[in-house]
Amino acid sequence: MANIITANHIVKRYSKHTALNDVNINVPEGSIYGLLGPNGAGKTSLIRIINQITAPDEGEVLFFNEKMTLGHTSKIGYLPEERGLYKKMKVGEQALYLAQLKGLNKADALNKLRDWFKKFEIINWWDKKVEELSKGMAQKVQFIVTVLHEPSLLILDEPFSGFDPINVELIRNELLRLKNTGSTIILSTHNMASVEELCDHITLINHSKAVLEGSVHDIRQNYKEHLWELQFTGKEDSFTSAIENKFFPQQIETKKGVHLIRIKIPSEFSPNDLLKTVLPVCEVHGFTEILPSMSEIFIKAVKG
Amino acid sequence: MSKIGLIIQREYTTRVRKKSFLIMTVLGPLLFAGVIFAPMIIANSVSKARRVVVVDETKSFSGIIPQTESTVYDYSYSPYSLSEVRKLFADSTGVSVLYIPSNVVEANKAILYSKTDPDVTVVSDIEYSLDNIIERSKMKANKLDSNLIDLVKTNIDVVNNVNNKVTSSVYNLVLGYASSFLIYMFIFMYSVQVMRGVMEEKINRIVEIIISSVKPFQLMMGKVIGVCLVGLTQFMIWVVMSGILISVGTGLIEQQQIKPGNARTGQIIRQGTDAQAKTDFAGMKVSKKEAISKGASIIENLENTNWLLVIGCFIFYFLGGYLLYSSLFAAIGSAVDQETETQQFMLPVTAPLILSIIIMQNIIRDPQSTLAVWFSIIPLTSPIAMMARIPFGVSVWQLLLSMVLLISAILGAVWLAGRIYRVGLLMYGKKVSYKELGKWLFYK
To answer: Do A83 and B206 touch (CB under 8 A)?
Structure first.
């Protein structure tokens, strides 16, 4: 599949530090792409460069292999991390203004806004001033404005912050729906659970460099420690003596007579070898591989 | 609509719809008219005439001090001594006791005793009347025919013909001062509004959403132009409303003046030019003549002013000064997080503006002085300084140089502001120094 965004050798320097040091990313069309990294790693700088808010000192950004121009801004919807609205302006009027800035004509924008406001159940907020809204309400308005012009690329910086669980669910479903209709989404977040759930690909930026890139599946496979979880009934003693010196049990717990054990399988053995070894001494109830969570991978990659 | 058009529209409509705009727009001309009419109304609304009891030791003023609107003289207490009369009226608030000592002519001094402060016009009326009487009696004593004095009295009007045009320096002074001051006010009021608007967007954090759709430069210029249009709208309304109010006001006052006859008109003029009136022997006649000749010279001046030049320059310096300063103010607004931080950057920007208003006194006194010429050529001060000089006549090369320099300064300021603006908007939580600002200019 074609890449909607290709960033080649991006370098961005500020007076005292380098925010991005030779960063490359490729965002496949139709994917949800996670941009991860600790605070201050350079994510926002990269996002701003893709949005053409700032220009890189070196390197280039391509949109479907075409050099980015200002004309592309209407194809991008951007929800910055630090986001706000004009406090004294009415909600509907403001949404209309922002939509028109993205290139929608007035009639179109009005129709679409009405639909979205109904969908998000905020239509009766249309004539309220923004200062009367709760933070969550304002976030909804901002989200609507970001997606209203049906951009082919959405760039969302911490889209879930400030939402209650119901609205997080609402936004998550919208993101999946948008993905299914062909939109590409770049998601910058610290919420690792949503990365595992939503993202197809990620890039992890640390100290201005891309330290990890690839599909979530591949990365988790690469970081796996051949850890398996086995559920069995039978005598614990005979089980442990059977696997002794071959496999490395990590922890064991017992719930309602069923033992639950995590075992690391060394590279010279396969999971089948483990099963063969334990089958004679116990009754197996379950056997699954434990993949590292994105959170663990994040910490491992960042702390080295 | 183009994006910059949308921004201009938003800036304009949100501001024009504000209550504060409406209030300022209505109050402005009222205040303006108030400043003009308050003295006239005060001068006109003469309170009840004051009873002045005359204690005349010279016995020569009895019954001859002319009554005016503000004073009524009472000579019935002349047989009594000053202390007796004073005791008698010690508690009367509406009565004053005029003590004319026997040596009034030598000492040039009389005393007016009152329980409460009399109207200023009372004192000046008495002074004026006594002056006249004593002057005439001195003339008689020296065998001068008072008719001869009236004949001798001369009032030469020097017509100031500059370059075949009749001008009055007072009139030029007022025209220059008023137009410069308007420019100064406009620059200050609306540039600060631009700065506030920029800060609002930055502090509200809406700015990043907007500049993902438009270039920061478009946003900045949209704001500068939008606010400018707001200012022009307000200005136009003020001009029209002030015009209406002033013509209605003067109409009303004139009507009032006709009723009590000419005496009153004379009196008002005399009050306005008290010192001058004192030297006039014939008093009212001269005042009236003067008023007529003054009125005629103003009309002549109006006809002789090169309005095309004055209005053209006014619009040029009005807009040019605003563009120059508002873009600098926009840059300041983008560089700071809080209103208090604006101080350190505002001072150097506003200094030339304030300086030119201070220097204006000197410029108007001597419009061709080196100081005046340089201030009207240097771009940061030229919008105000040049406008003050225009009515007196400015050589073409100075005007052109000043305009060219102002245009290049605007281009420079807008470029500089644009560079600072686009970086400053996204900088939070940092106290910015001048060194830092300098670095921003070279960010990509």
So the answer is: yes
This model of the complex carries an ipTM of 0.84
- Put simply, whether B436 touches A (Cβ < 8 Å) is yes
Q: Would you state the structure tokens that stand for residue A254, as one six-digit string?
A: 């017992």
| B130 HSE (CA, 13 A, CB side) | 22
Q: Which of A187, A221, A255 is the last residue of a domain?
A: A221
Same domain? A116 vs A129: yes
Q: Choose the mutation target among A53, A75, A144 for the interface with B, i.e. most B CBs under 10 Å.
A: A53
* Residue of B213, B219, B421, B437 to mutate when probing chain A, most A C-beta within 10 A: B213
E strand or H helix that includes residue A18: strand A18-28
Give yes or no for B14 touching A (CB within 8 A).
yes
What are the extents of the domains in chain B? Answer: 3-38+170-440, 50-152
How far off is chain B from A52, nearest CA to CA, in Å?
7
Residue A63: strand, helix, or coil: strand
Tokens 């005496």 — which residue? B263
Domain match, A176 and A211 both: yes
**Nearest-by-Cβ selection for A57 from B3, B201, B444:** B444
Residues 130-159 of B with CB under 8 A from A: none
Contact between chains at A55 and B444 (C-beta distance less than 8 A): yes
Total residue length of chain B: 444
Closest CA to A126 of A163, A96, A161, A90: A90
| Model-wide pTM > 0.80 | no
Distance CA B421, CA B377 (A): 28
Domain that holds residue A291: 224-303
Full pLDDT tens readout for chain B, 444 residues? 689 999 999 999 999 998 888 998 888 778 777 776 777 676 666 556 788 888 888 888 887 888 877 788 888 887 788 888 888 888 877 788 888 888 888 888 888 888 888 777 788 888 888 888 888 888 888 887 777 777 877 878 777 676 666 666 777 788 888 888 889 988 988 999 999 999 999 988 899 999 888 989 999 999 999 999 999 998 888 888 878 877 887 777 667 655 544 444 444 444 444 434 344 433 444 444 454 555 555 566 666 677 788 889 999 999 999 999 999 999 999 998 888 888 888 888 999 989 988 888 888 888 888 888 999 999 999 999 998 888 888 888 999 999 999 999 999 999 999 999 988 888 887 778 888 888 888 877
A76: contact with B, CB 8 A cutoff: yes
User: Which of the listed CATH numbers 3.40.718.10, 3.40.190.10, 3.40.50.1820, 3.40.50.2000 matches domain B50-152?
Assistant: 3.40.190.10
**Beta strands A184-188 and A32-36, pairing class:** parallel
